[in-house]
Amino acid sequence: MSVAWQLWLQLFRRTPLLVVLANLLRAGALYFAVQWLRGDDEDVMMAATLFGVATWMWHTGQGYNLRGVCVPESFLMPRFRRRLLEYGAIDIASWVLLPLLVAVFGGVPHLLLVACGLLVVAALGVTMGCNPRSGMLLWPIFIVLGWMPSLVSTFLKEALRSPFTPWLLVAIAALLLRFSVAPLLRIEDRETETSPLESTSLGRTQARNAPGEPRRMGMFGRRIAALYDRLSQRALQRALAAYARHPTLQRRMLLVRRLLLPHDNPEAIALRIALVAVIVFFYFFVLMHRQHFQPVAVGAYAIMLSISRFPQLNVGMVRMRPNMADLYLTLAPETRAEYQQIISDALLVLVPISVLTALTYTAFGAVLVHAPDPLHMLFVAAVVSLAASLAALAVHLIGPEGATGRTIVNLVVVFGTMAVYWGGYWLVGAAGYAFGGGLLALVALGFGVGVWFAAQREYVSRAPRFDAPIA
Predict the structure, then answer these.
(1) Mean pLDDT of 385-391
(2) CA Rg, the chain, in Å?
């Protein structure tokens, strides 16, 4: 019992808000269940809904907690798997058997189906907590089912009559748990650390929130990551060969960029854009088959997606400090300011990459939604994305290193960028490209360039730091 209590405390330490919300919802479900048992039949649906959401939230936290608990070192503890099994039995008793007992007192029909449904909801939560990418596979199923409500209603009526439905639900729950928990129970060699400034977006949802927690990727993710690594290795070899043939300052800067930003070579950028284009294509043609928004919003989404890279710069540069000492010794700058200038100039390449990404996504989105004035969108997106990228690079280069301060800065940048985009779109539409576009470029680019030069001066004046981050 003490082991179960420690595991529960571990869950509370990692996701306190989720634990509190799930138990508040369960308390609300208990209140409506008591009212239902007293004779108010209308409260049964409210109780079932609240408890279903509470179960899903709680077990999502349980899955997230398992990712940090099931590290290779944990399996050295005596009877570790048995303790996890006991913890799971306690969880089933409190989240499945107890509500089922209330349903028995209330005379709910189809008790076996209710029990199996609770198991499926719990297994779904564990799956989404253990493997956040599973939501990309599970949610489209529910969305597609939402297209055919009459067919789903007929299917549910037939499923209630079928004696095989409980066995099907048990099988679904078992498959979900097999898909989510089984990989956590395998003892594997720890993977090689990836660059903190990687731009594949494959591992950002798999951040290690506990020391030693391995990054878990599926077969598709591993293949894409391997492809990115091959492209970055090829680009680095080309840069090394070019510098060996003719060592110039320009080629040395290219070599520094290949070291700092391994996945920002032309081939990797094209691969990243192609992958996002596939997702966007699926989103518009499967999920958004009916137009629910203004086509102008495509440009705003594209810019927001393109500048989402810069908060990672702040985190990545802090994590890379110990490794940057090797780069400092290799470059052998005459002054510390020269080294800081090299790093800031190398990172400046993220700005044209961000602008290219925003324009590509805007053009692709404009084609998909049949925007009436795509040139207008592209013009405003080009100006605003350039200014926003400069500002975002500046504030995240010298901005706060704490999570709270970084989040506040990022929110200010995002909301400010959206305000400038919508205001600039209106201004160009009202005053024309010459006057309105010129005024937008003067204000936005003037601010972005000014902020960047001020941030660069501040960064160059700082002494290089090579100490490892505290956490």
Answers:
(1) 94
(2) 27
What is the structure's pLDDT at 206?
Answer: 44
DSSP secondary-structure letter at 470? Answer: -
More reliable by pLDDT, 411 or 144: 411
Choose among 367, 357, 221, 362: nearest CA to 285.
367
* pLDDT at res. 423: 93
Q: Which of 317, 418, 306 is nearest to 362 (CA)?
A: 306
- Give the pLDDT confidence score for residue 79 in this predicted structure: 85
Q: At residue 288, what are phi and psi to the nearest 5 degrees?
A: -110, 55
Tokens of 201: 């977006």
- Alpha-carbon distance of 446 to 452, in angstroms, equals 10
Cα four-point dihedral sign 198, 201, 203, 207: positive
The Cα diameter of the chain in Å comes to 87
**CA pair distance 363, 409, nearest whole angstrom:** 28
Mean pLDDT across the chain: 83
Lowest-confidence pick of 190-204, 310-324, 366-380, 381-395: 190-204
Q: At what angle do helices 336-347 and 438-461 cross, to 10 degrees?
A: 150
Q: Which of 171, 168, 232, 156 is nearest to 198 (CA)?
A: 232
Among 236, 226, 292, smallest CA distance to 259 is for 236
